[in-house]
Write a structure and sequence with these properties.
The complex is a heterodimer of chains A (about 400) and B (about 300). In chain A, about 5% of the residues lie in helices and about 40% in strands. Chain A has about 400 residues and is mainly β. In chain A, a hairpin with a 4-residue loop joins strand 13 and strand 14. Chain B has a two-stranded antiparallel sheet with strand order 1-2. The chains are: A mainly beta (about 400), B mainly alpha (about 300).
Chain lengths: ~400, ~300
């Protein structure tokens, strides 16, 4: 039997069936408004891409949230980093949302999802850890239970929360973006390929994908033990957390630090974009018409990958930015003019997330990238403090068989 | 005891020395409009300023110039070797060389290419002229064309100046078109649209270039400039009709409004070409809609049109 993902809008089944008897499974119930700010509901958020709708939850760090990979992976490949609507509980998408800056996922998810394998091993990799540069919630994030995989199989009470757009068991559509809970209930979890588990007697619906599966720890606190990723009308599939999840955490950790750290290369993990930071405290030669070069060696992308996005953040302190010319040069000499002596009456050159994708689309990301700077007029010393290069690539090309 | 006269002459000497020293310093313009204007001069005019300010070549630049020369000598020997390398091998080696060279000092690279070009040394590669990513080449019919392609990726201020000299001298369509690339890059040294159209006319005036692949690609310059004047230049050209039709059609696809302006001002664009261009009009633009409406009401339109 083929189990389906519960991604998003799709075509909802509007026809409802009236059941005279009580449902045999745990079904999503809309929570009351007063619960939204309480645990564990306050960690939830709706996850929106350009054409998909899912659920997610802020956990581990205030700047990170988990969701299902299939919410951001579709027919056209990986989607742009989604928007996160924390604690939304209304008919319309209103209020504060945070645009995520990227997401980390298992490197083999896309290949598994595209393979049409009857065993559906992709569910065992169906998770993303998305991040933002600003906090998603004001208080502490949810705790992760990296023993989720074993705990859930121990017949303990669990609860799923999220934003279903339908109740698939009752075949009823659910309007708006209202937080729902399924459970708490005790339901047996069975093994499925990889880190996935399947359980009967728990039903949700499309839109709930990416929502957390909660269990209680020894202190009776709700902890996130997994992510809802698929199901049938009367059963669900979850991606369960385990020690393996640490790889996702380790990969995202350098990016969400106050001062972005060097990217961590992990074979098992890929990301929507990779950040390459460089920090200096170096004075640019003053009044010299020669380029001072600040190189970054990039070699983390797979063979055949092509540049899909390039953004640059830069900080050069100077009393007179009009002295400066700045270029970003990629492998092969392709370059973007970042600054060309503009701003004659202004000081520091501080650039955040300048999108220069157009100048580098399609090139091989691996190689030497350079920031080249000239301080063309004497006096008013310029000191470079940092620059951060963000590179995203398309999926790597398939290497032909020998 | 030092006399007042000696003190005065000593003081005058110091002041004089100071004035000479100050006069020799690179000018630091005040942060006012004058500086902005000075900085926005066209590339050709800034040559004197750059030379006056340029420091002596650094050791790094000299070392890299030697490296370029060594790479070049090896390349020439290899490409003329027997048995000769395959086209695939040549393409891969030139690609690798481009990546390597463009990671070096861009000013030393531009200077090296300028010197090499003056020497006139060249070799055929057997590759077709082929445009690749971002308008740079993926196939170079000769090593001189390869050098011009790399030039456009070197120092963005020096490259247009060097390319301008080459545009005045070359007799090759492929070289001419590749050199033009250095004048079209954003930022420092980009030629004005008027300068580019003058070069475009220069290219179109060479009847003997029309069979060159580079020449066909060079027709894209009209689309790059994107003005009604560019479309008119193309329309007035009495060259290969198939190339002309294709270039005008591509122009109309990218710049429907400018194309309609060109049609309104110029009787050269008529017949089927005019019909194609009208079909490209954006109906959401009132000005374009008006031109199309007027066109459709023209009674003397030929049936085919």
């Amino acid at each position: 039997m083929k189990i389906f993902t519960l991604p998003g809008l799709g075509v909802l089944l509007i026809t409802s069936i009236s059941l005279a008897e009580e449902p045999k499974t745990a079904n999503p119930d809309r929570i009351g408004m007063r619960l939204v700010d309480q645990e564990p509901y306050r960690y939830n958020g709706a996850v929106l891409t350009t054409d998909m709708r899912g659920s997610g939850f802020c956990a581990w760090s205030r700047k990170t949230f988990f969701s299902a990979a299939h919410v951001v992976y579709g027919a056209t490949g990986w989607d742009a980093p989604p928007d996160y609507f924390p604690k939304i509980h209304s008919k319309e998408l209103t209020g504060r949302f945070v645009g995520s800056r990227g997401y980390y996922r298992w490197a083999d998810y896309a290949a598994l999802a595209d393979a049409e394998n009857f065993d559906q091993p992709e569910f065992g990799r169906d998770v993303i850890l998305a991040f933002s540069f600003s906090p998603l919630i004001t208080d502490m994030p949810a705790k992760l239970n990296l023993n989720g995989f074993s705990d859930l199989r121990g017949n303990i009470k669990s609860m799923i929360t999220g934003y279903p757009a339908e109740n698939s068991y009752l075949e009823q559509s659910i309007d708006g973006f209202f937080m729902h809970r399924t459970g708490p209930t005790i339901s047996p979890y069975q093994t499925f390929p990889g880190n996935a588990l399947t359980t009967t007697l728990i039903s949700t619906g499309t839109g709930n994908s990416g929502g957390p599966v909660w269990t209680k720890n020894a202190r009776s606190e709700w902890v996130a033990s997994g992510v809802l990723v698929g199901g049938l009308p009367s059963e669900s599939v979850v991606y369960a957390f385990s020690a393996q999840t640490n790889d996702l955490l380790r990969a995202v950790k350098p990016v969400i630090q106050k001062r972005i750290g060097e990217p961590l290369a992990l074979d098992s993990v890929s990301s929507s974009s990779t950040f390459f930071p460089s920090y200096y405290d170096e004075v640019i030669p003053d009044g010299v018409h020669e380029w001072t070069s600040f190189p970054i060696s990039v070699n983390t992308f797979p063979l055949g990958a092509k540049v899909d996005k390039v953004k640059l953040s830069l900080k050069i302190l100077t009393p007179h930015r009009g002295d400066l010319q700045v270029l970003l040069v990629g492998p092969g000499g392709f370059f973007a003019v970042i600054h060309n002596e503009g701003g004659a009456t202004e000081n520091d050159l501080i650039i955040r997330n300048l999108n220069v994708t157009e100048k580098f689309t399609g090139i091989d990301p691996n190689g030497i990238w350079e920031l080249r700077v000239q301080d063309r007029l004497v006096r008013d010393l310029a000191t470079i403090k940092s620059f951060v290069l963000e590179i995203a690539t398309t999926e790597s090309a398939v290497i032909p068989p020998p | 005891m030092i006399s007042t006269r000696r003190l005065l002459s000593g003081g005058l000497f110091i002041i004089g020395t100071l004035m000479v020293w100050l006069a020799l310093q690179p000018e630091k313009s005040p942060r006012d409009q004058a500086k902005v204007i000075a900085k926005s001069r066209p590339a050709a005019a800034s040559e004197t300023l750059s030379k006056a300010h340029s420091p002596l070549p650094s050791t790094r630049s000299r070392d890299e110039a030697n490296r370029f020369a060594q790479d070049w000598e090896e390349l020439l020997r290899w490409i003329k070797s027997d048995p000769s390398p395959t086209q695939q091998e040549i393409r891969e080696r030139l690609n690798a060389l481009r990546i390597d060279w463009t990671s070096k000092d861009p000013q030393a690279l531009a200077s090296f290419i300028a010197e090499l070009f003056e020497s006139g040394v060249d070799a055929e590669t057997g590759l077709n002229f082929e445009v690749g990513l971002h308008g740079h080449l993926a196939g170079w019919p000769s090593l001189r064309v390869f050098l011009l392609d790399v030039l456009a990726l070197s120092d963005p201020e020096m490259a247009p100046r060097i390319a301008t000299r080459i545009l005045d001298q070359t007799a090759s369509a492929d070289e001419f078109v590749t050199a033009l690339r250095s004048l079209t890059r954003d930022g420092m040294g980009r030629a004005s649209n008027e300068q580019l159209l003058t070069r475009f006319q220069q290219m179109l005036s060479h009847d003997d270039w029309q069979s060159s692949r580079g020449f066909a690609e060079g027709l894209d310059l009209a689309r790059f400039v994107g003005s009604a004047e560019a479309a008119q230049s193309l329309a007035k050209w009495e060259g290969n009709p198939a190339l002309k039709r294709m270039a005008l059609d591509e122009f109309a696809a990218d710049h429907p409004r400018e194309m309609l302006e060109a049609i309104a001002d110029d009787a050269e664009i008529s017949g089927i070409q005019r019909a194609f261009s009208m079909a490209r009009a954006d109906p959401n633009d009132a000005a374009q809609l008006e031109i199309v409406d007027r066109y459709l009401r023209t009674r003397e339109l030929p049936a085919a049109e």
